[in-house]
Design a protein that fits this description.
Chain B: One of its GO terms (cellular component) is cilium. Chain B: Acts as a positive regulator of hedgehog signaling and regulates ciliary function. Chain B: Keywords: Cell projection, Cilium biogenesis/degradation, Cytoplasm, Cytoskeleton, GTP-binding, Microtubule, Nucleotide-binding, Nucleus. The structure holds 2 protein chains of 2 kinds. By secondary structure, chain A is α/β, with parallel strands linked by helices. Helix content of chain A is 39%, strand content 18%. Chain A is built from 12 helices and 13 strands. In chain A, the strands form 2 sheets. In chain A, strands 1, 4, 5, 6, 7, 8, 9, 10, 11, 12 and 13 form an 11-stranded mixed beta sheet that branches. Chain A has a two-stranded antiparallel ribbon with strand order 2-3. In chain A, α1 crosses α5, α1 packs across α6 and α10 runs antiparallel to α12. Chain B is of the alpha/beta class. Among the domains of chain B are: 118 residues, Tubulin/FtsZ, C-terminal domain (60s Ribosomal Protein L30, Chain: A, 2-Layer Sandwich), CATH 3.30.1330.20; 48 residues, no CATH class. Chain B contains 14 helices and 11 strands. In chain B, the strands form 3 sheets. Chain B has a 7-stranded mixed beta sheet, sandwiched between helices. Classes of the chains: A alpha/beta, B alpha/beta. At the A-B interface, α7, β10, α9 and β12 of A face α2, α6, α7, α12 and α14 of B.
Chain lengths: 424, 418
């Protein structure tokens, strides 16, 4: 089995990360009754003998001594990380995994990317390398960050470039961004506030929990047993038909916002229907009325292959798939359900419904850019030029165009292409 | 009873080698690029207390192949070639009279398909005098792996070169057997694998070597190949068995050989996957008339022409079973006479819980339509170049895809022209 490292950048990234580690611990505690450090738990945690000073404390088997998260925490302000280190999760992290500064990035991508990027480049690389060394077989980096702020977005995208050095040996990098657009990751799972209906006192808490759950469910089939396992590299293999079209929309059912809520068990088939409804998407998007390039269904709990197939057959007619991928389904069955539920479903779709999101983003950007609003805050940062902006817009436009071309094929009849003819 | 001892001895010799404490060890080598399934398999076997896998018979890695045929074939293959072949060699050395390999794999994923093809090729190189039969799982038409059609065509085209026979099992067909004949409500992979194991057992459990002798066959693989693969252009074999039902229904049913064989024959000529839903409107052409024109892939009602068939009968009064219906020349292609094309093996001993059972292993047009569909879908996807970058990344180029398409179109055409 393989290991993954979580890199949480910025305020948003770290808050989500915090939820994630809390949930991960609960999930493994529920499954791992005997307290033995097994392969499943090693995917996200190291087992460390805290009495040993320095680096030599890793234990690979036997009883769990002290669990340490395979994580790197990065923030240019101290507030959030300090809170984590003083909170209930303080023993899960050690100070060697942190990179913090004091002043923050001021919501300025240029500051995050150029200033802090160059300042912390070596430290970042060092932490990544260390975290990789602690892994037997590192498969994936998960990078959690927002797009709207300065650190998560700027420094978050900067460190991607650093990671490419390390990941020439690894195949996968998954970004989970709140409306994340990044440079060149293999695949990107986007989420935004679209899914939340109820009002909570701390709205971000509920949202962060959803994203944290998403990460857990994404990796469940690689960590736990099931009749149809799915490893993380299978996600990028099946869901990314062309390198630039690596943006995935996710939906989670049942949608649970708090860790311990007792949702009445839904009928199994209802769970599948919900996964395709507009309301359950974690991005404000409607995949049902757009074009699917590929779709993955990751089921947890006591669900068998016949349940899965029955529902695919049932839902297929109402969904539109691109002509060359009419049966574009990737499926997995993990027998371990999430804590507090009998079953759950995570659907990942590569669908043209992300296009409106990108178009809206571009529009909002252009409105500001045309007026040159706030531009000087960026340009005064060393290394930042107007070309950074123009390049970004043009690559976004190119992406939108790709989706446009695919959409144009939507209602065309599917024709079989002429085959090779063999002389007999 | 001597008969019982002889049967047990034959089973043991065929499938197991003996360990010191008398616990039989399966003559098997397990290979996977990720550990979860092998671990499960090993512990399930050991739980039975009656047999187990060899301690050093497994080869495992951590990362899997990511559903990528190219990764299984071009990366894992060469990297682990030596280790895997060593384990295989040790197992072969334990055999007194080694005849060949039975390779079990799927086509849709990355390891079974890609690494499976690589290992088969190696076996062809290193054990060129031994037989190789690949048992291949044909994926569900919908919803297993998105790139399954690519992985399938790459697998089939490579195996067509390096393997001697391909025994193909379709998930869709077995699923229907579970649903309609076994009446299972919530079908799991465990159920599907049980049916598969039953089909394999009904073929590979010992049978007598001749009509009236009481000695069990000692080279089933060789015999199967000899009967069923007379020409290297035609390697696709499929299995149909009858009856197949749940324990409950079994209690209320009686069988006659005549009834079973009539159904089985109709299943053969109408290309049915199981006994229900047999199309009774399909008849072979009357002998003496000119042969039927080329099989059209678009016709629903078509007659399934065979190259060779083997029927294995197990159970009470088996000597009275009349298989004349399978010797009709109209069932077969013109270039083989029924006396050469058809064989029957009979054994008194019943199999599993069925008082009488029959299995048909057939080299016929059974698989042309599914093959044609997979080639068509893969071709459509290839035309758009979708996912190709995932393969070229590991050294499988567009050229390789085109080669695969060409060989398989050839296979489809050859079978259609029977």
């Amino acid at each position: 089995m393989t290991q993954s490292v979580v890199v949480q950048v910025g305020q948003c990234g770290n808050q989500i990360g915090c939820c994630f580690w809390d949930l991960a611990l609960r999930e493994h505690a529920a499954v791992n009754q005997k307290g033995i450090y097994d392969e499943a738990i090693s995917s996200f945690f190291r087992n460390v003998d805290t009495r040993v000073v320095g680096d030599g404390g890793s234990i690979s088997k036997g009883k769990i001594c002290s669990l340490k998260a395979r994580a790197v925490l990065i923030d240019m302000e101290e507030g959030v990380v300090n809170e984590i280190l003083q909170g209930p999760l303080r023993d899960v992290f050690d100070t060697k995994q942190l990179i913090t500064d004091i002043s923050g990035s001021g919501n300025n991508w240029a500051v995050g990317h150029k200033v802090f990027g160059s300042l912390y480049q070596d430290q970042i690389l060092e932490k990544f390398r260390k975290s990789a060394e602690h892994c037997d077989c590192l498969q994936c980096f998960f990078i959690i960050h927002s797009m709207g702020g300065g650190t998560g977005s700027g420094l978050g995208t900067f460190l991607l470039k650093s990671l490419f050095d390390i990941i020439s040996k690894i195949d996968l990098m998954v970004n989970s961004g709140k409306l994340g657009t990044t440079v060149k990751p293999k695949s990107l799972v986007t989420s935004s506030s679209g899914a939340l209906k109820k009002q909570h006192k701390k709205p971000f808490d509920a949202m962060n929990n959803i994203v944290a759950n998403l990460l857990l469910n994404l990796t469940s089939s690689a960590r736990f047993e099931g009749s149809l396992n799915m490893d993380l590299n299978e996600i990028s293999m099946n869901l990314v038909p062309f390198p630039q079209l690596h943006y995935l929309v996710s939906s989670l059912t049942p949608l649970y916002t708090l860790t311990d809520v007792n949702i009445p068990p839904r009928r199994l088939d209802q769970m599948f229907s919900d996964a395709f409804s507009k309301d359950h998407q974690l991005l404000r998007a409607d995949p049902k009325h757009s074009l699917y390039l590929a779709c993955a269904l990751m089921v947890r709990g006591n669900v068998q292959i016949s349940d899965l197939r029955r529902n695919i057959e049932r839902l297929k007619p109402s969904l539109q798939f691109v002509s060359w991928n009419q049966e574009g389904w990737k499926t997995s069955l993990c027998s371990v359900p999430p804590v507090g539920h009998s079953h759950s479903l995570l659907a990942l779709a590569n669908n043209t419904c992300v296009k409106p999101t990108f178009m809206e983003l571009k529009e909002r950007f252009m409105r500001l850019y045309k007026k040159k609003a706030h531009l000087h805050h960026y340009l005064q940062v060393e290394g930042m030029e107007e070309s950074c902006f123009t390049e970004a817009v043009s690559s976004l436009s190119a992406l939108i165009q790709e989706y446009d071309q695919l959409d144009a094929t939507k209602n065309m009849p599917v024709q079989d292409l002429p085959r090779l003819s063999i002389a007999m | 009873m001597r008969e019982n001892e002889a049967y047990q001895a034959s089973c043991k010799e065929r499938f197991f080698s003996e360990e010191e404490n008398g616990v039989p060890i399966a003559r098997a080598v397990l290979v996977d690029m990720e550990p979860k399934v092998i671990n499960q398999t090993l512990s399930k076997a050991a739980q039975s207390g009656q047999w187990k896998y060899g301690q050093h018979a497994c080869f495992c890695q951590k990362q899997g192949s990511g559903n990528n045929w190219a990764y299984g074939y071009s990366v894992h293959g060469p990297r682990h070639e030596e280790s895997i072949m060593n384990i295989i060699r040790k197992e072969v050395e334990k055999c007194d009279s080694f005849s060949g390999f039975f390779i079990i794999m799927s086509m849709a994923g990355g390891t079974g398909s890609g690494l499976g093809a690589f290992v088969t090729q190696n076996l062809e190189d290193q054990y060129s005098n031994s037989l190789k039969m690949n048992q291949i799982i044909w994926p569900y038409g919908t919803g297993e792996v998105i790139v399954q059609n690519y992985n399938s065509i790459l697998t089939l085209s490579h195996l067509y070169r390096s393997s001697d026979a391909l025994l193909l099992h379709e998930n869709d067909a077995i699923h229907k057997i579970c649903a309609k004949l076994m009446n299972i409500k919530q079908i799991s992979f465990s159920d599907i694998n049980q049916v598969l194991a039953h089909q394999l057992g009904s073929v590979f459990q010992p049978t007598y070597s001749a009509e009236s002798s009481f000695h069990y066959r000692r080279n089933p693989l060789g015999d199967l190949m000899e009967h069923l693969v007379p020409h290297p252009e035609f390697k696709m074999l499929s299995v149909r068995n009858i009856p197949h039902m749940s324990e409950n229904s079994l209690a209320y049913t009686t069988f006659t050989w005549a009834g079973l064989l009539k159904h089985l024959r109709q299943m053969l000529i109408s290309n049915a996957k199981m006994e229900e839903g047999i199309d009774r409107h399909v008849w072979p052409p009357l002998s003496g008339l000119p042969p039927l024109s080329k099989m059209s892939l678009n016709k629903d009602l078509h007659f399934n022409t065979s190259i060779a068939n083997l029927v294995i009968l197990r159970g009470k009064d088996v000597q009275s079973a009349d298989v004349e219906g399978f010797k009709d020349p109209a069932l077969y292609t013109s270039w083989l006479k029924p006396v050469n094309a058809f064989n029957v093996w009979k054994t008194q001993r019943a199999f599993s819980k069925y008082e009488k059972s029959a299995v048909l292993v057939s080299n016929s047009q059974f698989l042309v339509k599914p093959l044609d569909m997979i080639v068509g879908k893969a071709w459509n996807m290839f035309a758009s170049k979708a996912y190709i970058h995932q393969y070229t990344k590991f050294g499988i180029e567009e050229e390789d895809f085109l080669d695969s398409f060409t060989s398989l179109e050839q296979v489809v055409a050859s079978y259609c022209n029977l």
